[in-house]
Amino acid sequence: MKRLVEDWVYGGVLAGLTLCVVAIGLAARLETAEFAVFLLIPIYMLHQYEEHAEDRFRLFVNKMLGGGRRCLPASMSL
Q1: Residue range 41-48: average pLDDT?
Q2: Full-model pTM
Q3: Which of 12, 7, 15 lies closest to 75, judged by CA?
């Protein structure tokens, strides 16, 4: 469970890619608006990877808001 919590972003990108593949099969069955809403889920998952991989989000917040001080901890314990 610890690894899943610490490395959630990598599982999210795999889930996002899987949902993109599923979307190909759903494209003919869903209305345009339904399909667009469905696509928001995997797109958001891929965005989370882009933002959080290699600890980019935490480092950015600490640099910009904290002036280099630690605002966000390196990891959160459950």
Answers
A1: 92
A2: 0.69
A3: 7
